[in-house]
Write a structure and sequence with these properties.
Elements (H helix, E strand, L loop, with lengths): L23 E12 L2 H9 L7 H14 L1 H4 L10 E9 L4 E12 L4 H19 L7 E11 L6 E2 L10 E2 L1
Antiparallel strand pairs: 1-3, 1-4, 2-3, 2-6, 4-5
Length: about 170
């Protein structure tokens, strides 16, 4: 079993020293879902939510979250992110909004946590903006889909993925 890199010799937490690592292009893609009533999903699509444009606000929230990940997750390094994109797809058959974040940088450490944080906060924002009409929403299935760069190279999730038939919005 590999030794955990975020644990020091005393068994306590530490932030890993990455100063000796090579700068490489790092990209991560994460996805998650907000499941809701079909009427709530339709109101989002129609722009009929009283608090405003749900997807526009969730998109900005996700971008801001990616940029602030190092302040939220204790062992994350502050990174200079070179790209962040948040996209949404309606899945009408199971009244679900899929959120995808793609984050990139050139640096010494990966951006998986930034992509996962972006998806999580975008989902929380959708919930916040729609909770007055649907308190039963569920935020979930947040997962890393793909990562590139660094010593471990390329990763792509092998299990069957949701979102193969994405209706981009």
């Amino acid at each position: 079993m590999d030794k955990l890199t975020h644990i020091n010799d005393d068994g306590r937490a530490r932030m890993v020293d990455v100063s000796g690592k090579q700068d490489t292009i790092r990209i991560a893609v994460a996805r998650g879902d907000v499941t809701m009533l079909s009427s709530t999903l339709q109101r989002i699509a129609d722009g009929g939510v009283a608090k405003g444009d749900v997807l526009a606000v969730a998109q900005v929230a996700g971008i801001l979250a990616a940029k602030q990940t190092w302040q939220l997750v204790p062992m994350c390094h502050p990174l200079f992110l070179t790209g962040i994109n948040i996209t949404f797809a309606y899945h009408w058959e199971d009244h679900r909004l899929e959120i995808e974040a793609k984050v990139s940088t050139t640096g010494k450490t990966g951006v998986e946590m930034e992509a996962l944080t972006a998806v999580s906060v975008a989902g929380l924002t959708v919930y916040d903006m729609c909770k007055a009409i649907d308190k039963n929403m569920v935020i979930g299935n947040i997962r890393l889909i793909e990562k590139q760069g660094g010593k471990s190279g390329y990763f792509r999730r092998l299990e069957g993925e949701s979102g193969d038939e994405r209706e981009e919005v």
